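Q: DUF3039 family protein, please. Structure only.
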Amino acid sequence: MPVGRPVRHHRGVSTQTLPDVDTRPEGTDTTDDDSPKMFHYVRKNQIAESAVLGSHVVALCGEVFPVTKSPKPGSPVCPECKRIFDGLPPGGDE
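A: Structure for DUF3039 family protein:
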């Protein structure tokens, strides 16, 4: 089952926002709140595989990370992912 909820479709590719994952070793710049600082847009078909198998996804901005959390309404979105996504021509729900 996919993590998150679809946002929009462009060029027949569904995308969803996903969290920015901190890959630094434990103990470096950690907080009590484990919430991601921002979420990224990735191809929808990569989300389930990543969530189940732990494989990495590639965001529109180029960030590479495993899926660990799903966004909530109002969550911060990566500005580069948003810029790229907003620049894509509208597509269908394919």
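A: Brief note, in case it's useful. The CA atoms of residues 38 and 76 lie 5 Å apart.
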